[in-house]
């Protein structure tokens, strides 16, 4: 790979410690990605999509050391959910802690073990990531495709009766994990993917999701138990006709989290919902950067992002809906809202619409506000104590995002997590 | 039961005095009405008693069964048995009526050292109260007051009152925004809650509410004071002649 080595010193330093698996079916995609990364370089603060979020901790040669777990935290989320568990410790698959990779209507493999040249994932690995580099550059996603050491390859062929859970465990203070998952949902198939856990001191993750006609993909992710978290994650999705893509993320705690979602609705009547509920106290910077492209006709997309911020926490939302020529009857919705519990917290939002079709319905809104004092007094006048009343109003504020989770058991788990977090971080 | 003595209140943000020495006593089992022109301080009195921010009590006291209300947080006043039916009930999207009421009732019970009520028992209580008030219990499944008509909002206030069983109820212009039928429904609800242990303070502009909720005592409030007190006939006099005569007599 000597000839591909970048001239840029910062980039050279950033990737020096990473391994580059240069053989097997992934190799062409990895070389491609490295070339893209070299051409675009690492992001800087002056880049359009990095103005609100400082990429320094993602671009530094070494990760900032991070403690593994805060003893004050509760146990893992989703524990009560019947699921197939795949466990990664500091980015390394832990077979002993995982369930056997077998479940009805699904093939599950590992990136590091999938050697066959005719592997189905060859048509997916790095493909959606590469498509997602235009028009907005996403250097950490290219870096991921080039250097990912592990990931799961999931091909769904029918209805999968239990959720597949990706559980991340962080055990080394200085781990720098790069995971790349590929998920292909075949025509008419249906799967739920759960993700939770701290992963690593620095976590760079890409998930590519290809939903075929009429396929259904549900994704619920919880980021919370790692207070020192520095994570840059991307989801790239392509949804064919009548396909469904739904992704919800709960983010609590963490120093620096950037979650990007890049979704293309390529077939007619496809649906994509992407939602997030984030709660941050103090040293917390959380960024949702979303790009939804409508290409097929009569597609529906929803972006619902809610953030509760206090003690100087910062929330960022950069969301775009692009309606391409011919994507008539598009129904696009985007809402980003923050509840600022004090005057030190900041919410930065950049909603964008770009529409090249004339028969579309697109709405967007962004708000920032404090807790409604009138509502608070009303609740208290009925006997609800101040803190409980505040928590009720905060949960009510987040409700629209949580409603995007279809599975009621999982939604209740998320709701409970938020309630507990609010109790621990009383105003 | 409710005893207000020489209550003086000004707005916190501006130097505007609203209540200028209100004296009023409501006995258990009685319904007192306060009538008065706009700006006389009626709604301020109800907010100050319930503990809303933005007002400063400069003198006087207000006690419920001997306990000083004005030193309590709003939730403590509720637990002590005070209830304010709002003139404009607040919409709270995302919070279910059922969750709200159960949280409120259990918080009050906890504050009084009583055991919390289970979800099952609470549901039974709600159904029973709703039935007695001829209110559709489905209202409890919806978010608090969201998308409710004016009449539904006021009925929801009365249902909350029935569930929480306060000792002292203040109704702030409960008749505003109601048509004749809704007015009757709401009034019937209030009448069903009248009993020997409970006091009512009914604030209204108009006599018409008092046709349905028959008061024992009527007070006329003007310019931050109670200027005249009498029986139900006083309300009729206002209806016939307006406030002008009473106020003129007061000034003379």
Automatic annotation (TrEMBL), chain A:
Domain SUF system FeS cluster assembly SufBD core: 173-397
Protein name in UniProt: Fe-S cluster assembly protein SufD
Native organism: Cereibacter johrii
Lineage of producing organism: Bacteria, Pseudomonadati, Pseudomonadota, Alphaproteobacteria, Rhodobacterales
UniProtKB/TrEMBL annotation, chain B:
Keyword tRNA processing belongs to the record: no
Highest taxon in the source lineage: Bacteria
InterPro entries (UniProt xref): AAA+_ATPase, ABC_transporter-like_ATP-bd, ABC_transporter-like_CS, FeS-cluster_ATPase_SufC, P-loop_NTPase
GO MF entry, a single one: ATP binding
Residues annotated as domain ABC transporter: 2-248
Keyword Nucleotide-binding tagged: yes
Keywords linked to the UniProt accession: ATP-binding, Nucleotide-binding
Family classification: Belongs to the ABC transporter superfamily. Ycf16 family.
The protein's name in its UniProt record: Fe-S cluster assembly ATP-binding protein
Organism, as annotated: Cereibacter johrii
Lineage: Bacteria, Pseudomonadati, Pseudomonadota, Alphaproteobacteria, Rhodobacterales
């Amino acid at each position: 790979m000597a000839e591909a080595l970048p001239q840029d010193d910062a980039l050279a330093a950033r990737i020096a410690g990473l391994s580059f698996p240069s053989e097997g079916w992934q190799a062409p995609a990895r070389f491609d990605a490295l070339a893209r990364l070299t051409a675009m370089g690492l992001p800087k603060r002056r880049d359009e999509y990095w103005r609100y979020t400082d990429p320094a901790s993602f671009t530094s040669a070494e990760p900032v050391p991070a403690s593994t777990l805060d003893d004050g935290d509760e146990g893992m989320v989703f524990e009560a959910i019947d699921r197939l568990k795949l466990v990664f410790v500091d980015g390394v698959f832990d077979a002993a802690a995982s369930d056997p990779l077998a479940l009805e209507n699904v093939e599950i493999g590992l990136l590091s073990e999938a050697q066959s040249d005719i592997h189905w994932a060859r048509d997916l690995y790095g493909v959606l990531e590469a498509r997602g580099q235009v028009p907005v550059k996403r250097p950490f996603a290219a870096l991921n495709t080039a250097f990912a050491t592990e990931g799961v390859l999931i091909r769904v062929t029918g209805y999968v009766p239990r959720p597949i859970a990706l559980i991340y465990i962080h055990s080394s203070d200085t781990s720098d994990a790069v995971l790349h998952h590929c998920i292909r949902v075949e025509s008419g198939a249906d799967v739920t993917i759960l993700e939770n856990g701290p992963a690593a001191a620095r976590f760079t993750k890409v998930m590519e999701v290809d939903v075929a006609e009429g396929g259904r993909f549900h994704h619920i992710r919880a980021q919370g138990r790692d207070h020192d978290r520095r994570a840059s994650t991307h989801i790239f999705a392509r949804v064919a006709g009548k396909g469904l893509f739904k992704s919800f993320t709960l983010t609590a705690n963490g120093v620096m989290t950037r979650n990007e979602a890049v979704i293309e609705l390529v077939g007619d009547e496809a649906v994509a919902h992407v939602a997030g509920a984030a709660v941050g106290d103090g040293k917390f910077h959380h960024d949702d950067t979303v790009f939804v492209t409508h290409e097929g006709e009569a597609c529906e997309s929803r972006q619902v992002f809610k953030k509760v911020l206090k003690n100087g926490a910062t929330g960022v939302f950069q969301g775009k809906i692009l309606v391409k020529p011919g994507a008539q009857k598009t129904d696009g919705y985007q809402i980003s809202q923050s509840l600022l519990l004090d005057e030190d917290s900041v919410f930065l939002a950049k909603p964008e619409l770009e529409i090249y079709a004339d028969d579309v319905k697109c709405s967007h809104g962004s708000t920032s506000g404090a807790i409604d004092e009138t509502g608070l007094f009303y609740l208290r006048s009925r006997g609800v104590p101040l803190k409980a009343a505040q928590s009720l109003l905060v949960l009510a504020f987040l409700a629209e995002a949580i409603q995007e989770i279809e599975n009621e058991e999982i939604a209740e788990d998320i709701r409970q997590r938020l309630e507990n977090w609010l109790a621990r971080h009383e105003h | 039961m409710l005893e207000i003595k020489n209550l003086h209140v000004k707005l916190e943000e501006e130097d505007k005095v609203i209540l200028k020495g209100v004296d009023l006593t409501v006995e258990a089992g009685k319904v007192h009405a306060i009538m008065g022109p706009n700006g006389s301080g009626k709604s301020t009195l109800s907010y100050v008693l319930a503990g809303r921010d933005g007002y400063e009590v400069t003198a006087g006291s207000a006690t419920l069964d001997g306990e000083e209300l004005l030193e309590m947080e709003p939730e403590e006043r509720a637990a002590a048995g005070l209830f304010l039916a709002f003139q404009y009930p607040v919409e709270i999207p995302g919070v279910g009526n059922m969750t709200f009421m159960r949280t409120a009732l259990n918080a009050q019970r906890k504050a009084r050292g009583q055991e919390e009520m289970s979800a099952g028992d609470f549901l039974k209580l709600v159904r029973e109260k709703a039935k007695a008030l001829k209110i559709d219990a489905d209202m409890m499944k919806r978010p608090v007051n969201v998308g409710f008509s004016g009449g539904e909002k006021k009925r929801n206030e009365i249902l909350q009152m029935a569930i929480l069983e306060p000792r002292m109820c203040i109704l702030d212009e409960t008749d505003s925004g109601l048509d004749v039928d809704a007015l009757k429904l709401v009034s019937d609800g209030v009448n069903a809650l009248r009993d020997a242990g409970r006091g009512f303070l009914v604030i209204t502009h108009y006599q018409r509410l008092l046709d349905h909720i028959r008061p024992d005592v009527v007070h006329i409030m003007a310019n931050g004071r109670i200027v005249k007190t009498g029986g139900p006939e006083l309300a009729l006099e206002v209806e016939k002649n307006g406030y002008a005569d009473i106020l003129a007599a007061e000034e003379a």
